[in-house]
Design a protein that fits this description.
Layout (H helix, E strand, L loop, with lengths): L5 E6 L2 E6 L10 H16 L5 E6 L3 E3 L18 H18 L4 E5 L2 E3 L1 H7 L3 E5 L3 E3 L13 H9 L1 H10 L3 E2 H7 L4 E3 L4 H13 L3 H13 L5 H15 L3 H12 L9
Parallel strand pairs: 2-3, 3-5, 4-6, 5-7, 6-8, 7-10
Antiparallel strand pairs: 1-2, 8-9
Helix pairs in contact: 1-2, 4-5, 8-9
Length: 263
């Protein structure tokens, strides 16, 4: 189907979803939310798609909410931001974080507000050297939403999370990498190739094992060691019965590349 605010390309076992409002730094409107949700329905419903890449068109990844899409004036009725979070942002972050296939985010340029935290909901974030991550909520009297208050302290610790959230100072891609906020910072002209190589790797990889790895690691901070050991046991039992495990072992013994099917 055709989209007005996003691009969706599918092929070779992978999907590429591009936020496509470059004139507004790919900031979200209700229309964009609805189109992204429809695209994710398509991606999740297609078993042949085994990995997803999320990125933005133009000079930025996403500037968060398009404030022009809301009627916010001093004499207007208050806007129910809780409804916006509950209806659009929270479901989007939850879907990205729990999808049954790996999700990569390639951050080109600014990722601000909800845009930063949507990126951080993905499994692996690769950023161009010129990219910046900005928790801009404090500048308009808000808190980091879209999972920001959950993910920031887990990734960079409470002191840095508070500094980012309360000052709204931009964080460079290089520093984001050194702080452990993202996986990798690369030169601007290498971003597309780096992201595509990882997408191809995941699209032909052991999908169930990759998703189980994400599940175990993301939930580890909530569990005691004994609980996590039991989770590891259960996941290993499940994955040990998979076709991909058998293929991986056979390929290792035969000294050939594995041909994973994601099953």
């Amino acid at each position: 189907m055709g989209y007005a605010t996003i691009l969706l390309e599918i092929g070779d076992g992978a999907a590429r979803l591009t936020l496509n409002r470059p004139e507004r730094l790919n900031s979200f409107t209700v229309e964009m939310h609805e189109e992204v949700a429809t695209a994710l329905d398509q991606v999740e419903g297609d078993a042949s798609i085994r990995a997803l890449l999320l990125t933005g068109a133009g000079r930025g990844f996403c500037a968060g909410q398009d404030l022009a899409d809301r009627a916010v004036t001093p004499d207007a009725e208050p806007v129910d931001l809780g409804h916006s979070v509950e209806t659009y942002y929270a479901p989007l972050v939850s879907r990205l974080a729990t999808m049954d296939k790996p999700v990569i985010c390639a951050v080109n340029g600014v990722a601000a507000g909800a845009g930063a935290n949507i990126a951080l909901a993905c499994d692996i974030v690769i950023a161009a050297r010129s990219a910046r991550f900005i928790q801009s909520f404090a500048n308009i009297g808000l808190i980091p939403d879209s999972g920001g208050t959950w993910v920031l302290p887990r990734l960079v610790g409470q002191a840095r999370a508070l500094g980012l959230a309360m000052t709204g100072e931009p964080l460079s891609a290089e520093k984001a990498e050194s702080w452990g906020l993202i996986w990798k910072c690369v030169d601007d002209d290498a971003l597309a190739a780096e992201a595509d190589a990882l997408l191809r790797r995941f699209a032909t990889g052991p999908t169930r094992g990759l998703v189980a790895t994400r599940h175990a690691i993301r939930n580890a901070t909530l569990n005691a060691l004994d609980d996590e050991l039991r989770i590891e046991r259960d996941l290993m039992r499940e994955l040990g019965a998979s076709n991909d495990y058998r293929e991986g072992v056979a390929a290792f013994i035969a000294k050939r590349p594995p041909q994973f099917t994601g099953s």
